[in-house]
Design brief:
The chain is globular. It has 296 residues and is α/β, with parallel strands linked by helices. The chain has ten helices and ten strands. The chain binds NADP nicotinamide-adenine-dinucleotide phosphate. NADP nicotinamide-adenine-dinucleotide phosphate is lined by residues 15, 17-21, 40-41, 44, 66-69, 91-95, 113, 138, 140, 194-195, 197-198, 230, 233. Residues 15, 17-21, 40-41, 44, 66-69, 91-95, 113, 138, 140, 194-195, 197-198, 230, 233 line the site of NADP nicotinamide-adenine-dinucleotide phosphate (NAP).
């Protein structure tokens, strides 16, 4: 495993107070990175910081208040960043919602948070991104579950929440691959990674973090042959953000059966999320929906 020393590197993780985001923070901090925890709850962020410090006493951490469901909140967070950022892990995500659920700005909750929120964040962080910065979009196997139509990305939807979740993840991934094309030759890179099938009851326990009841954990043990904990789910994402063998345009995920678990490896994204035409149209639709524009 390619695990370079990360001292001197500053990495922002969104949704850093729970699940996979938390484990990204702990793994990055244990290798010496300075980590900014993008979190919408000060209380949950403080719990995560204490948990990391319990395992990495010299962890260099800073909490960045960040609500990806609010365009004003995203702008405030971006303007609060006063240091150079070497990598951003776009991890925060809403995994289920009703069609009526909305962000503060009236956008569909899953598309608005998972995709548009991250696009607005990266656009406004641009001046603080290092010359060789990496952006990692946390995608999902679910990106294949729904058609991606840029003209309808903010349109009302019906039917399964999982399908709309898949659409939000496909859009985030298409954004990262479009960023890869637009940053070509600049020294910056944009990648996707996914955690496989990562569940709380198989995750190492940390004080204050949800990992399920003792019974749930015991019942989950046999499933370890198929799925994994969120600690292991963070591995492909951290790899994409830090490894020297990870390159712009890559997609990383677990290498085991069905990509549910296992060591990080390069995996295949759908043609739809890699389509330059879709990426360009989605970019325009997102700028129109958010009112946020990229400088470059
Ligand atoms: N677990 C899996 O098997 C799996 C598979 C494929 C992809 N993923 C992706 O991996 C990422 C993490 O998943 P997880 O299982 O670790 O989820 P999780 O345990 O539910 O954690 C989600 C994180 O996102 C944060 N978040 C949600 N809405 C936010 C907002 N408006 N602003 C800021 N932060 C927000 C949550 O913060 P709060 O505590 O404040 O709610 C939490 O920190 C997600 O993007 C998910 O789509 C997960």
């Amino acid at each position: 495993m390619d695990a370079p020393d990360l001292r001197g590197r500053t990495i922002l993780v969104t949704g850093a107070n729970a699940g996979i985001g938390y484990w990204c923070v702990e793994k990055l901090a244990s290798r010496g990175a300075r980590v900014l925890l993008g979190c919408r709850s000060a209380e949950r962020a403080a719990t995560a910081v204490a948990a990391v410090q319990g395992h990495v006493p010299d962890a260099d951490l800073r909490v960045l208040p960040l609500d990806l469901g609010s365009l004003d909140g995203i702008a405030r967070a971006a303007s609060a960043v006063d240091e150079s950022i070497d990598a951003v892990i776009c991890n925060a995500g809403v995994k289920a919602a009703t069609p009526e659920a909305r962000t503060t700005d009236g956008l569909d909750l899953m598309v608005g948070t998972n995709f548009l929120g991250h696009l607005a964040l990266i656009a406004q962080l641009d001046p603080m991104l290092a010359a060789d910065a990496r952006v990692v979009a946390v995608g999902s196997l679910a990106h294949r579950f729904a058609a991606l139509d840029p003209a309808r990305i903010t349109a009302p939807w019906r039917g399964s929440s999982l399908r709309q979740y898949g659409r939000s993840k496909a859009a985030l991934m298409a954004f990262a691959f479009e960023l890869d094309r637009r940053w070509s030759g600049t020294g910056r890179s944009a990648l996707c990674a996914h955690p496989g099938y990562a569940v709380d009851p198989l995750t190492a326990e940390r004080p204050g973090l949800v990992t399920g009841s003792r019974l749930m954990r015991a019942l989950a043990v046999p499933t370890r042959v198929i799925v994994q904990g969120k600690d292991d789910g963070a591995r492909p994402i951290v790899h994409a953000a830090t490894a020297t063998d990870a390159a712009s345009g890559d997609y990383w995920g677990p290498g085991g059966l069905l990509e549910f678990r296992g060591a990080p490896t390069r995996v295949v994204a759908s043609d739809a999320v890699r389509s330059p035409a879709t990426g360009a149209a989605l970019w325009s639709a997102a700028e129109a929906a958010t009112g946020v524009r990229f400088a470059s």
